[in-house]
Amino acid sequence: MEHIRTGKVKEVYAVDDDTLEFVFTDNISVFDKIIPSQIPHKGETLCRTAKYWFTLLESKGIKNHFIEYLPPNRMRVKRFQIIEDYDKIDQTTNDYLIPLEVICRHYAAGSLMDRVKAGKITAEQLGFPKDHVVQYGEKLPKPFLECTTKLEAHDRELDEKEAKDIAGLSDSDYQGILDTILKVDEIIGEEASKRKLIHCDGKKEFGYDENRNLMLIDTFGTLDEDRWWDSDEYAKGNVVELSKEFVRQYYRDIGYHKELMEAREKGLPEPDIPALPQDIIDRVSKLYTDMYERITGEKF
């Protein structure tokens, strides 16, 4: 096999012209930075969780690129062209990775709340009345979908027009992606509720096959791409994060996030992200194994 890419948490190999092999590492990343700490069992839990969702969605008629699971931390998937020059993509292009990440939010949390507080997103945009004060943890009146870039150095927020333009999408193509995400999230939400979880938000990625059929790709529904809360605690008025959000919060608490954001805004060299302390590493590892069991209903 040929090694073709090192991602934040995956190594990618070409098996042949049509097949890739993902190797899920124990790396962990936040804010587009790879933390210099390994999280025991993380790669295996991500791989097995992704396999669980791909298999479930296939049974429900939702096309995806999953081919085969190779225990403990590898899977084979359909390969798509990666076209980094947006000018070479149009509505006739086939067999390519759509260069977008699409985030669907069902609750007010994370970076969405940062932007609300900064006045970058209004209550009206989220479906609330104009004078509504958005509270952290509040359920949104309707799903809030937005796109960022996939192939650029840092995720860049896109409006609908630019998302369609750079990805070679017609209005109906774009709507098809949004409809698929809502259908997938409905399935995830139903499964999560059986295990007293709330699926708060998550990102999805897509490709078009040789016949321009839409296919769900990469991974989703894991602790890396999605945010999860405990439903019993939520019913009591408490938001209990069951994702790597507390890792992000650690870097906010020590001031690193602020330093990083300021450097990016000013175009300055980015500060190196410090390693995690051992107690946080242990906590994260246990979270990933516990949540694998809770999300899938399977034993680790």
Features of the shown structure:
300 residues, alpha+beta, D-amino Acid Aminotransferase, Chain A, domain 1, five-stranded antiparallel sheet, 26% strand
Descriptive report:
By secondary structure, this protein is α+β, with helices and mostly antiparallel strands. The protein has a single domain, classed as 2-Layer Sandwich (D-amino Acid Aminotransferase, Chain A, domain 1), CATH 3.30.470.20. 34% of the residues lie in helices and 26% in strands. It contains 8 helices and 14 strands. Strands 8, 9, 10, 11, 12, 13 and 14 form a 7-stranded antiparallel beta sheet that branches. A 5-stranded antiparallel beta sheet has the order 1-2-3-7-6, covered by helices on one side. The two termini are 29 Å apart. The mean pLDDT is 95.
Count of helical regions? 8
Q: What is the 3D form?
A: globular
CATH class: Alpha Beta
Radius of gyration: 19 Å
Cα distance, first to last residue?
29 Å
Mean pLDDT: 95
**Strand content bin:** 25-35%
What series of H and E elements makes up the topology?
Answer: EEEEEHEEEEHEEHHEEEHHHH
Count of distinct strands: 14
Q: Architecture in CATH?
A: 2-Layer Sandwich
Largest sheet: 7 strands, antiparallel
| The CATH homologous superfamily | ATP-grasp fold, B domain
Produce a short descriptive summary.
The protein is of the alpha+beta class and 300 residues long. It has helices at 42-59, 110-117, 160-167, 171-194, 231-235, 245-253, 256-266, 278-296; strands spanning 2-6, 10-16, 19-24, 28-30, 33-35, 66-70, 74-78, 96-97, 100-107, 139-149, 157-158, 197-208, 214-217, 226-230. A hairpin with a 3-residue loop joins strand 1 and strand 2 (10-16).
